[in-house]
Design the sequence.
């Protein structure tokens, strides 16, 4: 179709150009009419710059196997296409979205080479500024992203240190107490050996000791009221049989699952004159068994925390493999337990029948971390306690991981911007604004999934949808935002035509 310089000059993008410049645009470009349907596809070589003269245009991004609409407009003068042609071969020159029209639409179409040339010739200073802005923002984004990961690592390290300190301190205390009890047992054994005990009495005492250790291993769980009643009963029995400090011994026996029936069996096995010494000896046995149980429990908790840390960091694991998302979620929740704190109740609604999915597990853990951190911060901003619900389910051929919090919600006017780089509602110094941007890139670009939000006050849900099957993994070796931040694509809300 013929190109009219006056019509081109009426578009806001070109309204300040001279007649000579408009003539050059018409000479090097063209006006083209498109029937309803596609104009160009995401990922194709970016050969043209399009400015709409009249009609309706729709832009979309590929998310997994779906095309998600990110912009629709009928405003004259909106533009799209090879907008970064002036950067030349410094960046890949491909379309970062797909464009189609829904009615007969006319565009002014300028070849990418001509667009790059007029930008450099007519606006050299602007071209340099835009180039610096483009690469500067990428560099800043990468640096701040690295800083955010370091801050997250420091927070996780502090939380892990706190979680490890409790069982480690318990193990140290139990070991010191055990050393003391074993020393007293040796002393008591020497006293027994020097006493007037027959060989049969000693054998019976050792047999009782073995049966006592077995009872400790099978001790039932009692309510505080049941434990208090049993302590009073045991203390009375011990006092009646002339055993000193029965009130001190009774709680230990109750904790070990021993009762008056067991004491009667002990009394029936040994002579009355050696009963106090036998009970004292068995008390040391019980205390020793309980302390060893405490050490076993503490070291088991430490081992569990170390395993969770390895699972979270995916040490010595393949970067891309089949994973159970529930294992990743559990390790992340455990690593963040100190940050979550007592004011947030965590509810797990897992569908354990879900299959493993092909993924980059270390990067998914980063997504879980960002979403959980945001949920906890949202609950905290509400000024009270709240609930974080982590739910998994199957939706068609995709796996859903949903993080639901009872915070005040995401305001509708900013909901479309929360995935933008550097956008944050946190106070200055408390947030970089890259957590959701990085998460979006990991989910969408690396895993071909989708990340979306639904929010009303008291019910905010971030939903991650991952394909149950995936194409071949990337082979560039880069991780999350380092590789993605160098691409031409921006976050989903930045793809609207301008």
Sequence:
């Amino acid at each position: 179709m013929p190109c009219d310089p006056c019509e081109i000059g009426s578009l806001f993008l070109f309204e300040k150009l001279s007649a000579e410049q408009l003539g050059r645009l018409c000479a090097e470009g063209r006006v083209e009419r498109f029937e309803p349907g596609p104009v160009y596809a995401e990922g194709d070589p970016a050969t043209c710059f399009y400015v709409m003269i009249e009609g309706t245009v729709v832009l979309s991004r590929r998310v997994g196997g779906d095309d998600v609409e990110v912009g629709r407009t009928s405003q004259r003068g909106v533009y799209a296409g090879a907008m970064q042609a002036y950067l030349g071969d410094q960046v890949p020159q491909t379309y970062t979205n797909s464009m189609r029209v829904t009615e007969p639409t006319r565009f002014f179409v300028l070849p990418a080479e001509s667009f790059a040339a007029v930008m450099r010739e007519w606006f050299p200073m602007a071209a340099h500024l835009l180039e610096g802005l483009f690469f500067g923002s990428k560099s800043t984004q990468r640096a701040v992203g690295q800083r955010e990961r370091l801050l997250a690592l420091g927070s996780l390290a502090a939380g892990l240190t706190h979680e490890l300190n409790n069982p480690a301190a318990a193990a140290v205390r139990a070991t010191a107490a055990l050393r003391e009890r074993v020393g007293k047992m040796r002393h008591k054994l020497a006293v027994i050996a020097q006493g007037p005990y027959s060989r049969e009495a000693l054998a019976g005492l050792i047999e009782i000791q073995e049966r006592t250790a077995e009872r400790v291993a099978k001790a039932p769980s009692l309510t505080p009221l049941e434990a208090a009643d049993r302590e009073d009963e045991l203390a009375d029995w011990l006092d009646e049989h002339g055993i000193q400090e029965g009130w001190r011994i009774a709680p230990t026996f109750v904790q070990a699952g021993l009762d008056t029936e067991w004491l009667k069996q002990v009394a029936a096995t040994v002579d009355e004159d050696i009963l106090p010494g036998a009970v004292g000896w068995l008390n040391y046995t019980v205390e020793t068994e309980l302390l060893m149980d405490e050490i076993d429990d503490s070291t088991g908790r430490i081992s569990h925390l170390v395993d969770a840390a390895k699972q979270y960091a995916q040490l010595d694991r393949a970067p891309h493999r089949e994973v159970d998302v529930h294992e990743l979620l559990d390790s992340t929740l455990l690593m963040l337990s100190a940050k979550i704190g007592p004011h947030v109740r965590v509810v797990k609604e897992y569908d354990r029948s879900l299959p493993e999915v092909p993924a980059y597990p270390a990067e998914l853990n980063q997504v879980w971390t960002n979403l959980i951190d945001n949920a906890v911060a949202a609950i905290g901003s509400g000024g009270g306690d709240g609930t974080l619900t982590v739910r998994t389910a199957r939706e068609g051929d995709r796996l859903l991981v949903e993080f639901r919090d009872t915070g005040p919600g995401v305001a509708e006017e900013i909901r479309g911007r929360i995935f933008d780089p550097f956008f944050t509602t946190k106070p200055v110094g408390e947030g970089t604004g890259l957590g959701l941007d990085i998460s979006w890139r990991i989910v969408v670009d690396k895993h071909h999934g989708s990340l979306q939000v639904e929010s009303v006050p008291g019910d905010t849900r971030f939903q991650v949808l991952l394909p149950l099957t995936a194409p071949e993994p990337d082979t560039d070796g880069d991780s999350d935002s380092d590789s993605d931040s160098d691409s031409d694509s921006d976050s989903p809300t930045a793809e609207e035509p301008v």
